[in-house]
Specification:
Largest sheet: 9 strands, mixed
Keywords: Cell wall, Cell wall biogenesis/degradation, Hydrolase, Secreted
Number of strands: 11
Protein name: Pectin acetylesterase
Strand order of the largest sheet: 1-11-10-9-4-6-3-2-5
CATH topology: Rossmann fold
Bound molecules: 2-acetamido-2-deoxy-beta-D-glucopyranose
Subcellular location: Secreted, Cell wall
InterPro entries: PAE/NOTUM
GO molecular function: hydrolase activity
Strand content: 15-25%
Length: about 325
């Protein structure tokens, strides 16, 4: 029996992800590395472009430690939204900025990022629309879309292993939002790639998306994620121990069901009033057609006492 070491931080602010704000004067810009070997694995972005990451090498006593961060940016869960996304920077590395600003836990400034500033730090660009977990394709003759997040993850890992990741002392898999979800989904797989001598941990930042009814008791989010899992062929890549232990295997995309099957130590970082959970899971527009929650959504200080009670209940549902 493995014991799960789960450390829970609850941050009561409205920030969606940690470390998103940075002053412009001391930005570290890191060039993009396109993963050429991905083509052989059929690992493509939505539009067929090659996947990419940005890497800033470690130094000093951080030279053998690795931090990987999945980029976030929502999902596409039907052909229409994925076709749109394929023509944006969220679905094509061709359309992405080639120089990426490394801030927060990716910063190389020791006073801002004392724990990781000298680690090897890698940002995995998000271009599959399915939290790096799909394996499928849509092709009807005029439109071709790749749902190959799982292969992109593997192509990037296999590219990094010989660059030093494969003999890391410490390795942390992190990500924000849709990337935070990816770090839950791939945590076990990540540790399986690394030797027993590597201390592996994972960090999900604003990625604990809840399977919870909205204020009208509809499962709006469950429906959204079920469409995502089905469209992108994600089910086959979900943790087997989870999918074997639940009546609907698709539910294992939700961290709340996956959690007990994740073996490495896991840090969960989620705001108690996470904007996404509030605006899309608890009070999606479909559950509030008259906009009674609009003012409260824009400014929590203008929520009524009843609305605050409902928000506090959301906070308590989180880990
Ligand atoms: C590092 O961050 C500190 C604190 O924000 C700042 O004062 C300093 O100028 C930064 N150093 C560099 C080299 O940018
Ligand atoms: C980024 O990398 C590309 C490809 O290697 C290179 O052509 C370009 O000059 C680099 N840009 C900068 C600013 O280093
Ligand atoms: C393929 O699918 C797209 C998006 O649904 C649609 O616009 C297009 O007409 C379809 N092409 C064919 C040949 O059915
Ligand atoms: C990671 O997951 C993929 C897809 O399930 C699998 O093919 C691969 O063997 C796994 N890697 C390791 C090291 O377990
Ligand atoms: C399932 O759990 C067993 C026992 O904890 C473990 O040995 C195995 O690696 C797990 N399999 C997957 C796919 O996570
Ligand atoms: C709320 O749920 C009820 C019962 O399922 C349904 O009839 C009603 O249309 C829903 N209202 C909204 C605003 O979604």
């Amino acid at each position: 029996m493995e014991y799960l070491v789960t450390t829970v931080f609850v941050v009561t602010t409205l920030l969606t992800c940690a470390g998103m704000f940075v002053s412009s004067d001391d930005r570290l810009l890191v060039n993009m590395t396109v993963v050429r070997s991905a083509a052989a694995l059929g690992a493509y972005c939505l539009d067929g472009s090659l996947p990419a990451y940005h890497i800033h090498l470690g130094f000093g006593d951080g030279a053998n430690n690795w931090l990987l961060q999945f980029e976030g940016g929502g999902w596409c869960n039907d052909i229409e939204t994925c076709a749109e996304r394929a023509q944006t920077r969220r679905g094509s590395t061709r359309l992405m900025t080639k120089l990426e600003s490394f801030s927060g836990i990716l910063s190389n400034n020791a006073s801002r990022n004392p724990d990781f500033y000298n680690w090897n730090r890698v940002k995995l660009r998000y271009c599959d629309g399915g939290s790096f977990a799909g394996d499928s394709k849509f092709d009807n003759g005029t439109l071709l879309l790749y749902f190959r997040g799982q292969r992109i993850w593997q192509a990037i890992i296999e590219d990094l292993l010989p660059k030093g990741l494969g003999s890391a002392n410490k390795a942390l898999l992190s990500g924000c939002s849709a990337g935070g979800l990816a770090s839950y989904l791939h945590c076990n797989n990540f540790s399986n790639y690394l030797p027993d001598t590597t201390a592996v941990k994972c960090l999900g930042d604003a990625g604990f998306f809840l399977d919870s009814p909205d204020i009208n008791m509809s499962h709006t989010q469950r429906t959204f994620f079920q469409h995502l899992v089905t469209l992108q062929g994600i089910e086959q890549n979900l943790d087997e121990n989870c999918t074997n232990s639940i009546s609907d295997p698709k539910q294992c995309i939700f961290p709340q069901y996956l959690l007990k099957h994740i073996t490495p130590p896991l840090f969960i970082l989620n705001s108690a009033y996470d904007v996404y959970q509030f605006h899309h899971i608890l009070v999606p527009p479909s559950a509030d057609p008259h906009g009674h929650w609009n003012r409260c959504k824009l400014n929590p200080q203008s929520c009524s006492p009843d609305q605050m009670n409902i928000l506090h209940d959301l906070k308590c549902l989180q880990p």
